[in-house]
Amino acid sequence: MKTVGPLYSGKLNVGNGYPTMEELVRHCGRNKQKQIGPFLKLLNHFFTLDGVVHCRNEKEALHIRDILEKRFKECQLELHEEKTKIIYCKDDERKGLYSQKQFDFLGYTFRPRLVRNTKSNKLFVCFTPAVSKAALKAMRAKTRKQGFRNRTDWELKEISALYNPVLRGWAEYYGRYYSSALDAVWGHFNKTLLAWAMHKYKRLEGRRVRTGIWLQKIADKEPNLFVHWRRNKVLRFT
């Protein structure tokens, strides 16, 4: 079991000489509430930190949650009532029934998935992370916001120089686990390049298939132009 939930904690403005939230909680444990009272008015500066607690069973998870609630109340803090959940990490070895079987954490969705054993080549269910739907949506939104599909004054290598570092960051962070889940982002980016090319070159205007073939040739010739061109075995531009 896992007890999951954002803890209403965070760091204060250290640049102004304020202590961190962690320091306040430790201070509270040693000296009780009255000595951190002067800092509580600064709570509006806090940001939410997510936390995950690994437990052996539901009984232990409930017990840990009760301890956390009590501890935070002592420091005049609280767990997020709606987002603090107990999750059952279902897989081939844990086959029990539980209403909550997945959660999002740091841009990943953890849930039961079919994975392949590289040694036996057999499929089995494993509780594993992959990029979350919210993160996928945010990445596609960032690409749209750049608006380079309409930048006919840019060359392809300029787009690469400006945006490839972003793509590399996504690939390295979100592609660490279940990297195929990022295919939706790469496909969206390729279609944005397709739209850019049809806007830029009159000979390609309105010719989606021809533009796709043109971009595919460039990808075959210069796979290092964009990080996902190098990593993906199959590129789709149509």
Short descriptors:
about 15% strand; single chain; three-stranded antiparallel β-sheet; about 240 residues; elongated; 8 helices; 6 strands; 2 domains; alpha+beta
Word description of this protein:
This protein has 238 residues and is of the alpha+beta class. The protein folds into 2 domains: 130 residues, no CATH class; 99 residues, no CATH class. 43% of the residues lie in helices and 15% in strands. The protein has 8 helices and 6 strands; from the N terminus they run βααβαββββααααα. It has a 3-stranded antiparallel beta sheet with strand order 2-1-3, with helices on one face. The protein has a 3-stranded antiparallel beta sheet with strand order 4-5-6. Helix 4 packs parallel to helix 6 and helix 6 crosses helix 7. The longest helix has 19 residues. It is elongated and about 65 Å long. The protein starts with a strand and ends in a 7-residue tail after the last helix. The N terminus is likely disordered.
